[in-house]
Amino acid sequence: MTRFGKTGAFAVTPIAAACALLLWSAAVQAQEQAQRGEETPAQVVVTGIRGSIESSIAIKKESDSIVEAITAEDIGKLPDVSIAESIARLPGLTAQRVAGRAQVISLRGLAPDFGVTLLNGREQTSTSNDRSAEFDQYPSELLSGVTVYKTPDANMTAAGLSGTIDLRTVRPLDRKGRTIAFNVRGEHNGNGELNSGWSIRGKRLSVSYIDQYLNNTLGLAIGYAHLDSPGQQKEYKSWWWGDQNNLPAGNEDVVALKGAEVTSTSRKQVRDGLMAVIDWKPGRDVRSTLDLYYSQFDQEEIMRGMMWNSHQWSAVTYRNPQIETIGGVRLLTGGSLVNLEPIVRNDYNERRDEMAAAGWNTKVRLNPRWTADGDLSWSSAKRRETTSETYAGLGPAGSGVTDNDFQFRIPVGAGLPQFTPSIDFTNPGIVKLTDVGGWGHDATMHHPRVEDRLGAAKVNLRGELDGFFRDLQAGLSYSKRDKSHEDVSQTYWLKNNRALTTVPANIIQPITSLSWAGIPGVLSFDPRAALDQFYDKRPVDTDVAQQDWAVTEKQSIGYLRLGIDTDLGPVPLRGNLGVQYVHVDQQAEGKAVSGNVITPLRDGHSYHDVLPSLNLNFDLGNYLHDTYLRLGAAKTVARPRMSDMRAGVSAGVDATTRMWNGNGGNPQLEPWRANSFDLSLEHYLGKGSYLSAAYFFKDLKSYIYNQQRPFDFTGFPNSSAVVPLTNIGTINQPANGQGGFVRGIELTAALQFGMLWERLDGFGVQASASGTESSISPNGPGTTEKLPGLSGVVANLTVFYEKHGFSARVAQRYRSAFRGEVTGLFAQRAFSEILAEKQVDVQLGYEFQDGPYKNLSFLLQVNNLGNEPYQTKQGSAFASGAYAPERYTTYGRQVLFGVNYKL
């Protein structure tokens, strides 16, 4: 099997580039030092937990919009082990775990697709199939902070319906003096080595360099971060539940498990990230900044385990059935399966993601009252993935070679089911390569590919005014985005006419234990070597061809914004009032699939929107000290998922009705549109303490969901001999439909106890809670599924201590059950009912305050302290309203210990 290629010996890599820049900067520094004659006095910067909280509160307080913020505790040191986990501690924001990592963010109850992610104010591409950012692509060590805009501003030409997340890097001319920071951490996974040779240990290292040259007119910042993180995952998953089981008479209503899988997955995750900023300010009237970013993320995983079918169409029967009534439903919770054909899986997957971004901004003061700035940006994302499956077992499907005493016990509460086979499934003399499931192939391989490119240009003119309005801003922006997705689906047959094949000793590996679920182990082998030696490729599968697509999106925006700074009697008022005109032209390509006949398709659409916005900040300090009332109102949009905009269609003519019918994407989609209203009351109690209460209401005028619609199939390939009655048929495709509201409240408190009692100086707490509800039926009127991404209750609590160099923090993150978007079959979007999660993280540290070890610190971090399971339930309820368990996954406790040093 082809592996990812390696660069040549003399190729320029990001690491080599970083080293070259560091050496160059050191040389320039030496020259500049000689010219200065004396050192510039160092700026006193408050760092650490309390410094981070105070800086974040200051950003929130000074903003005209309703925002939340995170700032780094020090150079290269955000509060958590990943940027997504830090963001998820903000009020109204939640993270969804993917492979154990906090990866995607939902804002205020809406799925990640409704938000926009920026890097230094510029929209970013994504390695996902759609628009939503995968935050594990961004090393937290390279970021100086994050600002989340909950209300839009007219000069934000890239903004989301639910909110906007802006990742920020350092500005070297905003700092004084040279800083070099080093960070090294070791990592350990608490689930243990689940597959032989796949380590439970990893490492992280980062280096950051910031300095100023030419009498503080030129600044340079460079950062490099390396991640080598292990993953160890234990997972049980039920396939589906139902009645009609081969049970004794009188048990026709009993609901039983129709199939399941037990797997152990090990991962190796290696990411290299590089950031550079060149900041030039030759005088008071000009400042130009160049931002560069690059990351490469390689992931490998091996999955080994066992799965089985036990549905009513199989020959499976039951011995000693144990039946319990749960939630008004009679469930089969124990007994023995007879005539079972277990499938042993050995799968290997690999993925490489590459992201790059560049942005150049220049601001020029034209005269004392007017400034102009221009911004050029480019962003690129690529994903290359290979997923493979192999199957082994006692014999081909229906061969009669079965396990006749496969015992099972399914707990009615929390915990893992237990399964006990009566046959040794580690024995290569018994377990052979074959199509145990009767799926028509002996192995599969998929090659999803994603490419995403975005270029943008923006000009802005700002003038100072007198009176009610403090300033005027006007601008234009243009962006073009090209995104494509393809998937080559390959099936394999065993050689010699699909002969039952023994796994040879030279590719057998130490057995993988599944004892945590009762199964002693399964036969383990190298699946890549097996595919190379024992299988033949079949013709490329055309079933997934309609998932190959390309979308081009051109967006032009003009805007006008007025800044407000006045007094309404005794109440000072700040804010802004603005409007955007947005025109979008979208073109989509895809494939028309009819049987084995494939032809290209192309379609497109254009639309425009007028988007007014208002942000008001009333200073109530004359009534209650340091208290502010904020009001936001805006019309907002979120552009459709790009996979939904594909032109691909799969269709055929029904032999009975002689009518066309099919399914596919919709290049005619228009965005989600909403009227948004926000209200926030904030009371500040000093630099590091505040209380706030917020209410938001989003009235979505439409929602996109699949609908049966008329469709003209004229010119569509017909691979059958059936002549249609008419070319007008029906298609199931995404379309704009009925919307609804999303509303909620957010309560936040940050308190440093030293202000209450001097003896508690150093102690503090941060807490937030939000409640959200929605009237939207995401699958259309009359359906009952929940809005994806919406947790009714989200809560965060952090207790910390920091004084005399010692620091400690305990943080808990909670979100109630929600319907999550997950990766399904053929890497396509699917949904899962995810149960409530409560994750606890702990951090302990010490920094030397003076002496020869000053600025040296040690840090111990424990992420997922209680090894919180990821649990889901089946998507549809029984008649009584009860749900059956679906998935139980643990990722292990993550322990990191490291050293930080700053020069």
Fraction of helical residues: under 10%
Shape summary: globular
For the biggest sheet, the summary is: 30 strands, mixed
Number of separate helices: 5
Distance between the termini: 47 Å
Short summary:
The chain is built from five helices and 45 strands. 6% of the residues lie in helices and 56% in strands.
Question: What attributes characterize this protein structure?
Answer:
five-stranded mixed β-sheet; 903 residues; 45 strands; globular; 30-stranded mixed β-sheet; disordered N terminus; mainly beta
Protein topology:
Layout: H1 14-36, H2 48-62, E1 67-71, H3 83-87, E2 93-98, E3 101-107, E4 115-119, E5 122-123, E6 145-149, E7 163-168, E8 179-189, E9 201-213, E10 218-238, E11 241-242, E12 256-257, E13 259-283, E14 286-309, E15 317-326, E16 329-338, E17 343-367, E18 370-393, E19 406-409, E20 418-420, E21 432-433, E22 443-464, E23 469-494, H4 495-498, E24 508-514, E25 519-525, H5 527-534, E26 535-537, E27 549-568, E28 571-594, E29 597-619, E30 627-638, E31 649-653, E32 660-664, E33 672-684, E34 690-712, E35 728-752, E36 763-774, E37 793-803, E38 806-815, E39 818-823, E40 829-834, E41 837-847, E42 856-863, E43 870-873, E44 885-890, E45 894-902
Parallel strand pairs: 4-7, 28-31, 32-35
Antiparallel strand pairs: 1-6, 2-3, 4-5, 6-7, 8-9, 8-45, 9-10, 10-13, 10-44, 11-12, 13-14, 14-17, 15-16, 16-19, 17-18, 18-21, 18-22, 19-20, 22-23, 23-26, 23-27, 24-25, 27-28, 28-29, 29-30, 30-33, 31-32, 33-34, 34-35, 35-36, 36-37, 37-38, 38-41, 39-40, 40-43, 41-42, 42-45, 43-44
